Give the backbone structure.
Amino acid sequence: MNQRNWPQPAINSLQNWLKTARSQLEPVSDAATLEAHMLASFVLAHPRSWLMAHSDTLIAAGELEILNSHLQKLVDGYPFAYITGEREFFGRKFAIQPGILVPRPETELLVETALQWLAFHPSRGAVIDVGCGSGCIAVSLAAECHWVKVCAVDIFPDAVRLTQRNAVTHHVNSNVLCLVGDLISAFNTKFDLICANLPYIPTRLLNGLAVTRFEPALALDGGENGLQIIDRLLKQAIQLISPGGLILLEIESSLGENSQQLALQYFPKSEVRLVRDLADHPRLIIIQSRWENSF
């Protein structure tokens, strides 16, 4: 049979929709094929392997309408996690909702570093996750280290409720205490480990970022220099970090040196290190306090 006489896929076939979706996503995505398959898998409730084996399937009108509606959202930059209502982080699925920052893969570096430290300090179990958002840090730490007690605090009640929901889903709600609060100013107890992924993008840069179109600006805006909220936390942490405790702060990649210098201002006698992520960008500030309570 001559190639030009081969039967063409129907306009409402899965094969045709995937091809169209890929072409629309390519200008805005580095993984257009993957995202098209993921969206189809979510809406049609079939794994990607099924999609590839049944590409000639005809899509019902109702499903086609939903697919196209979600596709347009993705093209416009709407987070995929807001469509599916979930995001994978550190090997677990977390419920996500509009208004809450979507967890990023680079935040797994903070979790990995925290777990390494906890493994070497099994007697240090008082942990706080400041600005918990979806609870991906707090829940991951509690799930991996069953002896720790994690306090998850956020200024937004919706974030605290979502963290509680994720803690229940992953069966660590007895180890995760969720509270509404402004950083750690309301606490009078010391913590062995303080983790924070706070807003750290300088205000002047926000308008040029696509993420601010749909994700909460207040969860991204770090003030004029990007360190305004981190500065407040460090000032409070002086009195609340246990002797020999650890502070882990995720930072914006352009603020590495400034973040390190700020940490040394508040903790001049501590070991302060800057850690780079897999893309070789400055991503994490580690503050290892001394055993002497000299602050």
Notes: The chain has a mean pLDDT of 92. The longest strand covers residues 241-250. The CA atoms of residues 12 and 58 lie 6 Å apart.
